[in-house]
């Protein structure tokens, strides 16, 4: 077995310093437009929902308004359903699945729930199809006090007044082939650790919160998504990406301990979706549809079982 090729930035075994991070940043190029693909889509939704700017990211000469979509006629007596996408900017269906859900289904929940949707938490990374922000920080390991990621800090400020009122939170993600070809090797190099090659599961799966497992909730989502795209099987060890499955298509993490977006509220029902867009068995449209199916199933289950 041959050893993995060393990552092209840094010295193996030595964490990156300022010079290595600057070299990494210099390699990043804009590959798509947040303004044209996300902000314009949000603007089209103003006719049916409220749009709020909850923060702004200033990276050199680049400026990114952070927008969230709220139910029109917000009712303090109703539970809150939170949907987040694009915490990792390269995970495209998280962003466009969230937007599609609002466009096609927000009205279904009028008078039943308050919707709060942050469709693209990490716009700089969205434009560069990347996992990190320009400081080489992963926002989805940074949802904690004194966060080093502006993306994470801004979302936490938005959600803070509602933490105890959120009934269900769905965080939309993807697992891609580039996780193994680029992002995991980059992480190992950044932290001065060896990269241990792994596999990418072929199909959709969920990451539940080990502190709030809610197995019936997770399985309701898996069943809904199975009507749209295939569910990832466990590997020969009964695992998905190194974690044992707790039910078909479901693994669990301690989300708050890891600083994950799914841990930012006290919601009874929490899940992180993982769509596999690189499968030959799916399409971009199917991936967006899978995210929508997951959100609808999650909210529908939570509203039907508000007390667990």
Automatic annotation (TrEMBL):
InterPro entries tied to this protein: AstE_AspA_cat, Peptidase_M14
A biological process from GO: proteolysis
CDD domains with a match to the protein in the record: M14_REP34-like
Swiss-Prot/TrEMBL keywords: Hydrolase, Metal-binding, Zinc
One Pfam family cited in the UniProt record for this chain: AstE_AspA_cat
Claim: Hydrolase is one of the keywords in the record: yes
Domain (Peptidase M14): residue spans on this chain: 30-308
Cofactor requirement: Zn(2+)
Name the record gives this protein: M14 family metallocarboxypeptidase
Taxonomic source organism: Coralloluteibacterium stylophorae
Taxonomic path: Bacteria, Pseudomonadati, Pseudomonadota, Gammaproteobacteria, Lysobacterales
């Amino acid at each position: 077995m041959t050893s993995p090729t060393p990552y092209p930035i840094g010295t193996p075994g030595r964490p990156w310093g300022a010079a290595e991070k600057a070299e990494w940043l210099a390699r990043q190029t804009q590959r798509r437009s947040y303004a044209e693909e996300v902000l314009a889509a949000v603007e089209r939704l103003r006719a049916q929902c409220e749009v709020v700017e909850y923060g702004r990211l200033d990276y050199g000469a680049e400026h990114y308004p952070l927008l969230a979509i709220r139910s029109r006629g917000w009712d303090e007596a109703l539970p809150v359903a939170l949907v987040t996408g694009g915490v990792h900017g390269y995970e495209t269906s998280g962003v466009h699945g969230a937007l599609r859900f609002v466009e096609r289904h927000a009205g279904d929940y009028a008078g039943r729930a308050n919707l709060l949707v942050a469709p693209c938490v990490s716009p700089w990374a969205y434009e560069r199809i990347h996992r990190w922000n320009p400081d080489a920080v992963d926002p989805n390991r940074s949802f904690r006090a004194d966060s080093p990621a502006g993306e994470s800090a801004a979302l936490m400020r938005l959600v803070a007044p509602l933490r105890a009122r959120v009934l269900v939170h769905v965080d939309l993600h993807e697992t891609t082939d580039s996780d193994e070809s680029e992002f995991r090797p980059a992480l190992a190099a950044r932290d001065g650790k060896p990269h241990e090659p792994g596999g990418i599961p072929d199909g959709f799966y969920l990451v539940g919160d080990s502190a709030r497992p809610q197995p019936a909730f997770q399985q309701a989502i898996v069943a809904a998504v199975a009507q749209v795209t295939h569910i990832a099987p466990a590997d020969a060890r009964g695992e998905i990406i190194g974690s044992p499955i707790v039910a078909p298509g479901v693994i669990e993490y301690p989300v708050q301990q890891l600083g994950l977006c799914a841990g930012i509220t006290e919601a009874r029902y929490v899940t992180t979706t993982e769509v596999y867009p690189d499968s030959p068995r799916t399409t971009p449209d199917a991936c967006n549809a899978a995210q929508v199916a997951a959100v609808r199933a999650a909210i529908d289950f939570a509203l039907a079982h508000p007390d667990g």
